[in-house]
């Protein structure tokens, strides 16, 4: 087990580091994409007015900057998202590498999994990771939407200025957001794990991503015998990862729309569903497929792809940066591991050398001290003789020689 666990931890740690770097770089775009996914629902439920909607990704950036306090508005909820992304990535790479390594044991002639096995391994790893990170994901989504809802003008209070900083209430803290979710959804599990069914379906996204990446790698590297399968180079790694993410996101994007809406939990939608279904906290909207069908029926197929352009752009740079950073960090971890391993194996010899050097240094120090003392004594004697000689001359004392 240790033979597969150590490589898994190495990939997990490097993957988490790469995810943190890519999240820092692409978080403003992620915040904009979240709002684009749910603004149609917010308008239909009366939470925002039609003029509060964003026309495009660029319009969203300009509006947020002007209405919500400048550049800092693009990083609302960043701390929680960094923690969630790092944990999500660490757990996914840990489970993915561990599951995949176990499946490849004993396959010397086939260094990769079959299609269905690759998809199953990715989906299983994603499901295990999302089980732990869905609560934080819910909080991040709510905090990303908080300033949007606060800055938007209510239809019933159009006299208030949406651009005025004083008209916005401060963003809720992490704990306040958790309590709000639990209160609205009617319980800890029902609230904090809202959208987990969508997350299970969306586990196909990373598995499809890695599947596409493996296929592209076989098509490209398979024809270039001079390139290493595990290290195709920085440029090719980025392009393979980014392209595969775009392909996977195009397939699973409607489920991301449904997940975002389930996590936001607009009050108007919940009240309508409560009246129709007699259930608290979302009724028929609790299921991912029921949410998809409701969106298609009431808003059309086009609503399932709101903001897909920004999501594809984010996926291209985010996943490409993640995998490039992961490979670089993983290489450093491997080098550090073997360096420490080498030091550990050679520790007796190194310790003997250090002891010998310390002993020699002490001997030289003692020798130099003795020689220095002898020199100082000689200098002292000469100084005393010079002083006595000068005194005799001053007093006019003449030595009588026999």
TrEMBL record:
InterPro entries: MCP_dom_sf, MCP_transmembrane, Mito/Peroxisomal_Carrier
Biased amino acid composition, Low complexity: 151-173
Matches recorded under Pfam families: Mito_carr
Location within or outside the cell: Membrane
Region annotation (Disordered) ranges: 150-174, 266-285
Membrane topology designation: Multi-pass membrane protein
Alphabetical list of Gene3D superfamilies matching this protein: Mitochondrial carrier domain
Keywords: Membrane, Mitochondrion, Mitochondrion inner membrane, Repeat, Transmembrane, Transmembrane helix, Transport
PROSITE patterns associated with the record: SOLCAR
Gene Ontology cellular-component annotations: membrane
Principal subcellular localization: membrane
Solcar repeats: 6-102, 113-219, 232-332
GO molecular-function term, one example from the UniProt record: ADP transmembrane transporter activity
Family stated for the protein in its record: Belongs to the mitochondrial carrier (TC 2.A.29) family.
PANTHER family the record matches: CARRIER PROTEIN, PUTATIVE (AFU_ORTHOLOGUE AFUA_2G13870)-RELATED (PTHR45939:SF2), PEROXISOMAL MEMBRANE PROTEIN PMP34-RELATED (PTHR45939)
Protein name: Mitochondrial carrier domain-containing protein
The species this protein was found in: Cladorrhinum samala
Source organism phylogeny: Eukaryota, Fungi, Dikarya, Ascomycota, Pezizomycotina
